[in-house]
Amino acid sequence: MNNELISILKAILATLLYLTGIELIGSWFYIVEAIEFENYYKYYFLIQGFLQLLGVLIFIYFIKNQNFKYLIKKTNRKWYLFAVILGISFVLMQTPLKWIYNILFETEYYIAYRFDGLPKFKNINLIASILLIPIGEELFFREYIQNNLQKKTNTIVSILLASVLFASIHSPYMNLILESSKQDWHLFYLTIFGGIISGILYFKSKSIGPSIIFHMFWNLMVIIV
Predict the structure, then answer these.
(1) Rounded CA gap, 170 and 15, in Å?
(2) Which residues contact 120 (CB under 8 A, 6 or more apart)?
(3) What does the H/E/C string look like for the chain?
(4) Alpha-carbon distance 184 to 173, whole Å?
(5) CB 159, CB 145: distance < 8 Å
(6) Where are the domains of the chain?
(7) Given pLDDT bands bounded at 50, 70 and 90, which one contains residue 126?
């Protein structure tokens, strides 16, 4: 078995472990229910996002033995500017992508750009969606998965595979496991393209910083529109 195949299998296995970790972390609310902490649901996504980020940081620290001080490498500021622009515009790019999806799978997904999401920012749980989760996911799928793949495979394969694995955690995998008829794959499809943009930013900038910023603004725009 060659090194390239081993690297790919390791990436897939790591993603399965990541998914398992998410599900295990998500079980924390059973504990707070048992101790009758009534207001936990108000902060569910915030706590979940914090625990997921903490889990990724622990994973990065022990697996890569990497000092957090040097985790985000310095890069040209233009990549951060590109990241902001791409993060804001990616939601708008999703319209033609959904047209293609509708043609291929005979669905009727459309985006109504109302830009009425600002009132949602009163919800403290959005900190998880905009800050915590993007940091954790980019550290895992770009800094760990893609970075390792780049050492053993070519650039295109590493970016595409990391993007597909990234999209897999946004797929209806639980419905698939439970053999549910509700299997909606359009988010998986769209997330692949977001992952590709993030992967290119990571490869070009040689830093995880722009990828994190792109992901943050992407999630921010999803909430706003």
Answers:
(1) 12
(2) 126, 223
(3) CCHHHHHHHHHHHHHHHHHHHHHHHCCHHHHHHHCCCCCHHHHHHHHHHHHHHHHHHHHHHHHHCCCHHHCCCCCCHHHHHHHHHHHHHHHHHHHHHHHHHHHHHCCCCCCCCCCCCHHHHHCCCHHHHHHHHHHHHHHHHHHHHHHHHHHHCCHHHHHHHHHHHHHHCCCCHHHHHCCCCCCCCHHHHHHHHHHHHHHHHHHHHCCCHHHHHHHHHHHHHHHHC
(4) 10
(5) no
(6) 8-224
(7) very high
**76 in the Ramachandran plot: left (φ > 0), alpha (ψ -120 to 50) or beta?**
beta
pTM of the entire predicted model: 0.91
Which residue carries 């109302």 as its tokens? 114
The tokens for 169 are 């955690």
Residues 54-91 pLDDT 10s: 999 998 888 877 677 778 899 999 999 999 999 999 99
Looking at the chain, the whole-number percentage of residues with pLDDT higher than 90 is 59
Over residues 129-183, the pLDDT tens digits come to 999 999 999 999 999 999 999 999 999 999 999 999 999 999 877 656 655 556 6
Token pair of 65 as six digits = 């033995």
What is d(CA 17, CA 21) in angstroms, rounded to the nearest whole number? 6
Give the whole-angstrom CA distance, residue 76 versus residue 221: 24
